[in-house]
């Protein structure tokens, strides 16, 4: 990424400020040069904002910016070295108190002081020359970010992006996308035919449009349409991109098709055969998103697709160019995505600006200015979303919006294709530190590795992008992350909860990588140009590789960031020492043991992450890496031991041992009291010593996960962890080793399973692991006590008043749910899984003191997501009807239990419940009276006989409910889907409902009877429905046989020829 000069200058000035100046007159002139350095940076800083801005579009200043950037990077290396030497020689007492003075150390080491003084003096001369040359460009003083209206408290290669089939509904506005979706769905599903598909004009459909216009959103909406999901037995989504890898595209297609690519290696022909086997005979839809030429289809996917798929299979491609669609022989005319009409564009802008309903009237008064801004955005959805993100940071005042409308950026001429005006304007509005974070995000590999929010913010802190008090850096970094989301510069991945993972749109990524072009290189699989690697000085390098050799990278001596996802060839003789300035290092799946010892040569390293299942060691002297702040060893399953010297890393803020084989911590082991996050920590005993004692001094912990708690012999050891005193702790996971098999049965070590003594001891241990009231998220796994710890009950001395997320899994012995949860004022998500001993949920779950007190407020007042699964012995749920509960509940999953009924109180009080999923509830007979539910799934409920009184139900999906006899009171029903391979005739209740769409998956004899149309005894049950689709399988070929019926105009179509034989 490109350095933001303004931010880098501030970072260096902060470094200087932190180096105290006592007795500097004795430092052989170092103090004078240090002062000069600070003064020169102060002078330069006056026009760095203008230099940053012009560097994006004005080629004439790029060389000057590169020269200044290199000098400033050298300054950070020099100051780092000074501080490092002081840390290496300083006394342990000084380190502990934070009183060590780097410049005071220099005073006592005249040779070192002379060397540092000489280097700073040379640096100052370079800065003098650079400043003198700046006169050529007539930079102007734009002042500080704050002076320009910002808030102080918030901070050449076209990029590829990885899209997914998940649809972000905040991007969907207006009726046109609904019309386009229906049109494309109809085209993809019409006239399936009776033979195996061949590649002709009818096989491929194309969505064409410029970048950011909404092609992917439309394709996602089509891909997720219910009709598509039912018609096609295989659905494959591929994000192709400009520089795709043949092997990677084929592997992803195989995975999406349900095949196994591991035995196929990387050979194209072998992978194609594997894909062909996975598709054999299946009716398949293949979406190829973001295609730049026809090679991915013609040279890679066409042969296995055409030769293997079943009749009616289709390809849907999104591309920016008609030529690509033509080369793929897509059906004409192509579907061109139009820009938003002004009304829909205004709706989208308002959606981004209005985060709650409070200021909607004020925003409506600004519609005239908003429409002019939309005109500037050319009605492109992505540009409008980004502008909405910018405007939501402004006051809802005419003056603020007019300044955005009249900004000079809209008038810049000759902008490269990669520079979108709206994104550029939003970028310029960012705080300099936030600009650094935004540009850095464009480096994150996005194909083979998932980077979570903890990884991202840890890198930002390590790189020095986050300005603020050391105790608050993680919180500040999270504010930066959330602001990028708010501005629509990154978008949450809907596959993950709580915005743990985000993606960056390809147009936004292209912009960021263009800005970063002079110092950063991002290369994805199949597009690595070794010549380019060796032809420029790269500061930050991001690679996704399967074939690159480590030796290829070693000429890049100036690297400060190296992110490698995928395999990279490391052989004996390779070393990390080739990158002396490295601050951030992430390596996936490689032979790291070969270079492990050379890790200690990276004196400036702050962030170290490796994911290598074969890695077995860390360097013994890792404790000498004084700047190291973040260590992630996730999935290094052969790593069984930590070096003792890791306790010397006084600046360590993050340590993750998740997925390693580290099961014990040696006695006397210690870690830095600066730790904020500690994951995968093993609890174990060593005589009369317990590893939990290591946690006692870690008062700044924000995130903690502990494993193996069943091995703690006494609660007194748990008490020594002092979790309740850790006032910054927001995430906690407490885990015991599971003894449940996949079928939720106990793996018994003896006939008794858990002894009473074991059950009592684990309860006592958990009692002493009481978290602080500030906790935000709690996970409990494998807890085998009979009752829950006291701090989860209604009488808890310190209730968890800030808890938002609670997930409990594998609770083999608990006979009651914790009865204090209902009073938690902030609880939003509750998941309870595999509580296999619970038979009854009583009144105390909703009203702990029901016999003593009168209810004054709602219980579970903010809960919006409830999951109760695999409670296989649960038969009874008591709920007093007058107990008001769960007023904000939106989604409820009930699965694998023996409940006979869902309490009336839930249906009458959960008035916000929109989605209800009821799966495998063995004795449930009735589902009724849910006033707000719009989507209902009823799967494998053998005793269910009646579904009634769902006035807003829009979609009903029924599968495996053979006793169902009645559907009543469903006036809003639009879509009914039924799957039952045992029924011999259609249910009579179909006469009582009138959905617009009915889809049935059944046996071939029943389908053949339906295909007889008016002469069939089934006719009167479905002929009143607007559209009916019926499918039957033929052996392993799903949905081979079909009947399609339309009421008006009348149409009955089938591919079953010999009806009478059935």
Automatic annotation (TrEMBL):
Keywords: ATP-binding, Coiled coil, Leucine-rich repeat, Nucleotide-binding, Plant defense, Repeat. Residues 450-512 form the Disease resistance protein winged helix domain. Residues 13-94 form the Disease resistance N-terminal domain. Pfam families: LRR_14 (PF23598), NB-ARC (PF00931), Rx_N (PF18052), WHD_DRP (PF23559). Residues 200-356 form the NB-ARC domain. Residues 560-933 form the Disease resistance R13L4/SHOC-2-like LRR domain. InterPro entries: Apaf_helical, LRR_dom_sf, LRR_R13L4/SHOC2-like, NB-ARC, P-loop_NTPase, RX-like_CC, Rx_N, WH-like_DNA-bd_sf. It comes from the Eukaryota. Belongs to the disease resistance NB-LRR family. This is Disease resistance protein RGA3.
């Amino acid at each position: 990424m490109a350095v933001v000069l303004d931010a880098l200058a501030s970072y260096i000035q902060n470094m200087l400020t932190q180096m105290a100046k006592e007795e500097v007159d004795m430092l052989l002139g170092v103090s004078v040069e240090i002062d000069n350095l600070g003064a020169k940076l102060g002078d330069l800083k006056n026009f760095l904002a203008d230099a940053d801005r012009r560097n994006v579009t004005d080629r004439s200043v790029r060389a000057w910016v590169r020269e200044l950037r290199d000098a400033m990077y050298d300054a950070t290396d020099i100051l780092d070295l000074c501080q490092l030497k002081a840390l290496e020689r300083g006394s342990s007492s000084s380190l502990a108190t934070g009183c060590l003075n780097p410049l005071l150390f220099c005073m006592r080491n005249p040779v070192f002081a002379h060397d540092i003084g000489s280097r700073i003096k040379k640096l100052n001369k370079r800065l003098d020359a650079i400043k003198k040359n700046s006169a050529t460009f007539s930079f102007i003083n734009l002042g500080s970010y704050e002076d320009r209206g910002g808030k102080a408290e918030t901070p050449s290669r076209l990029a590829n992006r990885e899209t997914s089939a998940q649809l972000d509904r905040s991007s969907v506005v207006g009726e046109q996308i609904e019309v386009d979706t229906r049109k494309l769905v109809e085209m993809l599903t019409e006239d399936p035919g009776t033979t195996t598909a061949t590649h002709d004009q009818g096989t491929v459909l194309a969505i064409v449009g410029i970048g950011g216009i909404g092609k992917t959103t439309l394709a996602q909406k089509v891909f997720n349409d219910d009709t598509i999901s039912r018609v096609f037995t295989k659905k494959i989504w591929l994000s192709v991109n400009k520089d795709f890898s043949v092997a990677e595209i084929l592997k992803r297609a195989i995975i999406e098709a349900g095949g196994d690519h591991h035995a196929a290696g990387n050979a194209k022909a072998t992978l194609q055969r594997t894909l062909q086997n996975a598709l054999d005979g299946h009716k398949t839809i293949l979406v190829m998103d973001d295609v730049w030429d026809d090679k991915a289809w013609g040279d890679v996917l066409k042969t296995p697709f055409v030769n293997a798929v079943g009749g009616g299979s289709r390809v849907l491609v999104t591309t920016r160019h008609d030529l690509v669609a033509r080369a793929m022989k897509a059906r004409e005319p192509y579907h061109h995505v139009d820009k938003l009409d002004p009304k829909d564009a205004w709706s989208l802008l308002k959606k981004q600006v209005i985060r709650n309903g409070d200021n909607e009237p004020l925003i409506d008064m600004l519609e005239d200015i908003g429409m002019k801004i939309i005109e500037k955005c050319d009605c492109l959805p992505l540009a409008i979303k980004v502008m909405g993100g910018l405007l939501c940071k402004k006051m809802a005042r005419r003056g603020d919006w007019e300044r955005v409308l009249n900004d000079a950026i809209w008038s810049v001429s000759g902008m490269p294709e990669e520079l979108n005006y709206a994104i550029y304007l939003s970028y310029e509005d960012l705080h300099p530190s936030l600009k650094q974070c935004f540009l850095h995000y464009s480096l994150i590999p996005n194909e083979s590795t998932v980077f979570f929010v903890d990884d991202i913010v840890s890198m930002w802190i390590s790189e020095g992008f986050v300005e603020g008090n050391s105790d608050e850096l993680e919180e500040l970094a999270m504010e930066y992350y959330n602001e990028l989301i708010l501005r629509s510069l990154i978008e949450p991945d809907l596959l993950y909860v709580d915005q743990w993972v985000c993606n960056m749109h390809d147009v936004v990524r292209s912009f960021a990588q263009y800005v970063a072009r002079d110092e950063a290189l991002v290369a994805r699989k199949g597009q690595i140009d070794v010549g380019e690697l060796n032809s420029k000085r790269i500061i930050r390098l991001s690679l996704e590789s399967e074939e690159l050799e480590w030796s290829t990278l070693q000429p890049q001596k100036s690297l400060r960031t190296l992110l490698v996802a995928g395999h990279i060839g490391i052989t004996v003789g390779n070393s990390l020492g080739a990158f002396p300035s490295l601050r951030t290092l992430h390596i996936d799946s490689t032979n790291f043991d070969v270079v492990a010892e050379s890790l200690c040569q990276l004196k400036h390293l702050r962030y170290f992450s490796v994911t290598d299942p074969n890695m077995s060691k860390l360097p013994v002297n890792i404790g000498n890496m004084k700047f190291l702040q973040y260590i992630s060893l996730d999935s290094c399953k052969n790593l069984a031991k930590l070096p003792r010297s890791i306790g010397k890393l006084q600046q360590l803020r993050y340590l993750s041992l998740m997925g390693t084989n580290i099961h014990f911590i040696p006695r006397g082991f210690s870690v830095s009291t600066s730790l904020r996050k500690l994951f995968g920590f093993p609890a174990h005993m060593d005589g009369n010593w317990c590893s939990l004692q290591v946690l006692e001094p870690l008062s700044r912990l924000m995130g903690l996960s502990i494993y193996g708690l069943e091995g703690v012999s006494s609660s007194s050891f748990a008490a020594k962890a002092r979790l309740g005193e850790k006032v910054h702790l927001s995430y906690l996971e407490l885990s015991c080793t599971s003894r449940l098999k996949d079928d939720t049965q106990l793996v018994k070590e003896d006939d008794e399973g858990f002894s009473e003594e074991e059950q009592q001891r684990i309860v006592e241990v958990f009692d002493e692991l009481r978290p602080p009231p500030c906790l935000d998220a709690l996970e409990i796994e494998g807890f085998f006590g009979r009752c829950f710890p006291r701090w989860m009950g209604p009488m808890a001395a310190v209730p968890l008043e800030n808890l938002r997320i609670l997930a409990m899994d594998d609770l083999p012995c608990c006979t009651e749910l914790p009865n204090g949860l209902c009073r938690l004022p902030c609880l939003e998500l509750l998941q309870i899984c595999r509580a296999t001993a619970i038979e009854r949920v009583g009144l105390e779950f909703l009203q702990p003191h029901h016999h003593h007190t009168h209810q004054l407020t709602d219980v579970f007042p903010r809960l919006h997501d409830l999951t109760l699964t695999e409670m296989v012995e649960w038969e009874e749920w008591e709920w007093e009807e007058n107990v008001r509960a769960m007023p904000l509940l939106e989604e409820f999953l009930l699965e694998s239990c023996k409940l006979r009924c869902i309490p009336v109180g839930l249906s009458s009080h959960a008035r916000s419940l929109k989605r209800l999923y009821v799966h495998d509830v063995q004795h449930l007979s009735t589902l009724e009276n849910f006033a707000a539910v719009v989507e209902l799934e009823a799967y494998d409920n053998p005793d269910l006989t009646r579904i009634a009184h769902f006035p807003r139900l829009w979609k009903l999906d029924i599968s495996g409910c053979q006793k169902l006899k009645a559907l009543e009171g469903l006036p809003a029903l639009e879509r009914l889907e039924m799957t039952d391979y045992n029924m011999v005739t259609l249910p009579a209740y179909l006469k009582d409902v009138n959905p617009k769409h009915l889809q049935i998956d059944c046996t071939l004899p029943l389908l053949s009877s339906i295909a007889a149309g008016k002469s069939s005894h089934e006719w009167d049950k479905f002929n009143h429905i607007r559209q009916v689709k019926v499918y039957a399988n033929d052996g392993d070929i799903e949905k081979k046989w079909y009947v399609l019926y339309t009421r008006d105009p009348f149409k009955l179509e089938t591919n079953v020829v010999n009806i009478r034989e059935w």
